[in-house]
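Email to the structure team, subject: Chemotaxis protein CheW model.

Hi all, the expression group asked for a predicted structure before they design truncation constructs. Nothing fancy, just the tokens so they can compare against earlier work. One-line instruction: predict Chemotaxis protein CheW, return tokens.
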Amino acid sequence: MTDPQSNIRAIGIAAEANQFLTFNLAGEEFGIDILRVQEIKGITKIKPLPNLPAHIKGLLNLRGKVIPIVDMRTKFSLPNRDYDRFSVIIVVVIDEHPVGLAVDAVSEVLDFASEQIEPAPRIAGADTAFMDGIAKTDERMITLLNLDQLIATEVLQLNVAS
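Reply from the structure team: attached below.
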């Protein structure tokens, strides 16, 4: 049997920092390292820009700082839907740059013990580099996201240019 602490080290999650902000997309639960979250805000006016990848919805003025907004439904090829009162933007920090992630709803902050986290499964023909692992509870499985792999260079370049 694999040592749970080695699972944590293998997937790049600090053993002492197992807190994740969880959110919903199309009924599925995802988690991101709470230490990467700068703030959570309601959906407001996003300025669309031409010639961007479909998952980059545009730019948002966040207290004088212009940040790119990634629609996570589009990023994961999920069906589009209008934003509603539960939709939020999770502002995360990637390479010292803020990026907004538009999601259906934020759930909660969860602590996971090391033995609850397994490495991302390897699936033939599927790109799972964006996954840090799967956190399991008695009744739930939460996909833990690797923000550095998930948010492509083009988003960071857009952020630097703004």
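Residues 4-161 form a domain with the OB fold (Dihydrolipoamide Acetyltransferase, E2P) fold (CATH 2.40.50.180). Residues 60 and 106 are 19 Å apart (CA to CA). Ping us if the truncation boundaries need rechecking.
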